[in-house]
Specification:
Layout: H1 2-24, H2 30-48, H3 54-77
Amino acid sequence: MNAIRDYLPWALSALSLLMSVMTGNLWRYAWLFGIGIQCLWLLWIVAAQAYGFLPLCLSLFVVYGRNHMRWSRRIVQGVSS
């Protein structure tokens, strides 16, 4: 559990930056990738007992889910911008 607590934030921070780049490049699954990262952040929050990060993590779940649905709807409709 110590390895998760100590090292996972470094990897997740890098993945979060990667997700931001993918979103900027309009990659279709960027928001789903972000939701996956939030699942791992949730694991870290519990392992590190860092419950102060829980509101941010849950908020990002909602925002990323909303954005994915909006992007998916626009892709189905054929809207590019």
